[in-house]
Design goal:
Layout: H1 8-32, H2 37-57, H3 62-67, H4 71-79, H5 81-89, H6 100-110, E1 130-132, E2 147-149, E3 159-161, E4 165-167, H7 177-190, E5 194-195, H8 203-207, E6 212-216, H9 232-239, E7 244-250, E8 261-263, H10 270-276, E9 284-286, H11 296-310, E10 314-318, H12 323-336, E11 342-346, H13 357-362, H14 367-380, E12 388-392, H15 398-406, E13 411-414, H16 416-422, H17 444-447, H18 452-477, E14 490-492
Parallel strand pairs: 4-13, 5-6, 6-7, 7-10, 10-11, 11-12, 12-13
Antiparallel strand pairs: 1-14, 2-3, 8-9
Bound molecules: flavin mononucleotide (FMN).
Residues 168-171, 174, 197-198, 215, 250, 253-254, 317, 346, 350-353, 392-396, 414-417, 430, 440 line the site of flavin mononucleotide.
Length: 500
């Protein structure tokens, strides 16, 4: 049987003919019945002109050249496709990067309302690969969580976290003022630190009183010389700000590893120029690597320099790529006995404000295999105790966070978890400045929807509930602390059983 289908070409031809006929009819009615019909004629003429323009003058869009006005529907429907799918067609476990059940869990934790579910998990168990193993004898004596950065070096200014999750790097620039203010205040209430991202330290990061991890990207915004090299005096001044507790040197991030960037001069407002220490009237390039770090020797020297100048714990963040680069770097650290205070491993599944799709889809090693490689290598080299490991990459719920810890992480970072806690609806417009919930935009008309007090409480609730559930999961695994977790507490479905 023939498929029921619409012949678009014929429909477009009929549509155009009807338009011309209607216009003619209105012209005649205007002349012979009543001049008011000319208003209708004018209206229809607009469509006639647009149709003719689409079909015969513009050269950009084939669909419009072929189908005229009718073709517009294709663009309209395409532009609202994500919303239509999200609201009407996708099932609760279908969307990406986070499906509706995952997002709902964060919303509920952030609103401090019941996030329990009934009748069983909605996940696909037949092919699902990793589960935490519970103990037949859950523990009744959990040790308080505590991780101290910088203690291996015995520095004066160590930094201790009492909860295993931190707000991952998101710069002022990729996020708007109100979002950063809410995160800062929420982090303060929750008692966790927030990372500035690579866009420099803004007054909004400090506004809520949160502890700050200052991130130094390859352009070193805020602590730079014009050639993107480190300005030691500026770093010293920044490290002396009491709220700044740690420095993170970013080598790469999962969404765009190995990619530099360009801050076009059109996007440089006076405020951004002041915060980032860049000129107002020139494009600014973020190089793909730190200018000082062209091999393992110079990289280790640079880490040491930042440690010496800042006198703070100093971590490095990267997405694992070529394993040999990593092992060579570790060997150089071993030789010189110079180690960063932590390594933040970002999986290739990480996010960003804007990055080429080819980088997001095709570059970098995902979190879990990267964590395994790094922790196993450090164990083999008997260096695991020399530094802490922080993991990130879609770790937005307690189960995933604890799984990463069982794979060797001492703590986790999440960025999108906190965006969802702020009310992100996954509209996927972070790169357009049109974020409908005012998080990734500087447009005040959109940011006005964010009430800082309210969102700060959601951030704090999210942390409280994550932490509570992490403790419950730990109890179930029979572990007294995160340090007791290891891969023996994970069930990993053997590959041979996949697909059966
Ligand atoms: C809007 C946005 C901005 C980001 N900006 C930075 C940044 O400045 N520096 C950085 O290292 N990572 C940045 N990231 C990556 C996150 O810090 C994090 O590593 C990654 O998204 C993985 O965490 P998630 O899966 O919990 O989001 C950004 C992510 C988002 C969503």
């Amino acid at each position: 049987m023939d498929r029921l289908s619409i012949n678009l070409q014929e429909t477009a031809q009929w549509g155009a003919k009807s338009l011309y006929i209607a216009t003619l009819v209105f012209i005649l009615l205007g002349f012979f019945i009543h001049p008011l019909f000319h208003i209708g004629t004018a209206f229809l003429m607009v469509f006639v002109v647009i149709n003719l323009y689409f079909k015969h003058i513009q050269t950009h869009h084939t669909i419009l050249r072929n189908f005229g006005l009718l073709g517009i529907f294709r663009y309209l429907l395409e532009s609202i496709g994500p919303e239509m799918r999200q609201y009407f067609f996708s099932s609760d476990t279908e969307e990406r990067p986070f499906n509706r059940t995952e997002r709902t869990e964060v919303y509920r934790k952030a609103k401090d309302i019941d996030s329990t579910e009934s009748f069983g998990s909605q996940l696909e168990f037949d092919h699902h690969e990793v589960k935490l193993k519970h103990s037949m004898f859950p523990t009744d004596k959990l040790k308080p969580y505590k991780v101290t950065f910088g203690d291996e070096r015995k520095i004066k200014n160590t930094y201790t976290i009492n909860k295993p999750m931190m707000i991952s790097a998101m710069s002022f620039g990729s996020l708007g003022e109100q979002a950063i203010r809410s995160l800062s205040k929420g982090a303060k209430i929750a008692g966790i630190p927030m990372n500035t991202g690579e866009g420099g330290l803004s007054p909004y990061h400090l506004s809520g009183g949160a502890d700050i991890i200052f991130q130094m990207g390859t352009a070193k915004f805020g602590v730079r010389n014009p050639d993107s090299s480190l300005n030691e005096k500026k770093l010293k001044e920044l490290a002396n700000i009491p709220q700044v507790k740690m420095i993170e040197i970013k080598f790469s991030q999962g969404a765009k590893p190995g990619k530099g960037g360009l801050l076009p001069k059109e996007k440089i407002t006076e405020e951004i120029a002041k915060i980032r220490h860049v000129p107002l009237d020139q494009d600014v390039v973020s190089p793909p690597r730190h200018i000082e770090c062209d091999n393992p020797q110079n990289t280790v020297k640079f880490i040491k320099k930042v440690q010496d100048i800042s006198e703070l714990p100093v971590g490095i963040k990267f997405c694992l790529g070529n394993e040999r680069d990593f092992t060579n770097l570790i060997q150089e650290m071993k030789r010189t006995k110079i180690f960063p205070d932590y390594i933040a491993v970002d999986g290739a599944e990480g996010a960003t404000g804007a990055a080429p799709k080819s980088f997001m889809d095709n570059v970098g090693i995902p979190l879990i295999p990267a964590l395994d490689f790094i922790t196993e290598y450090l164990d083999r080299q008997k260096l695991r105790g020399k530094l802490k490991i922080v993991a990130s990459g879609k770790l937005i719920n307690p189960g995933k966070q604890l799984t990463a810890m069982a794979h060797g992480a001492d703590a986790v970072y999440t960025a999108r978890g906190f965006m969802l806690a702020l009310g992100c609806i996954q509209a996927l417009q972070c790169n357009k400045g049109t974020c409908p919930v005012g998080i990734t935009t500087h447009d005040w008309k959109l940011q006005r929807g964010i009430v800082v007090e309210d969102k700060a409480n959601r951030v704090a609730n999210y942390v409280k509930n994550l932490n509570h559930e992490i403790q419950e999961l730990l109890t179930a695994t029979g572990s007294e602390s995160v340090a007791d977790l290891d891969k023996s507490k994970l069930y990993v479905r053997p590959i041979s059983q996949e697909g059966d």
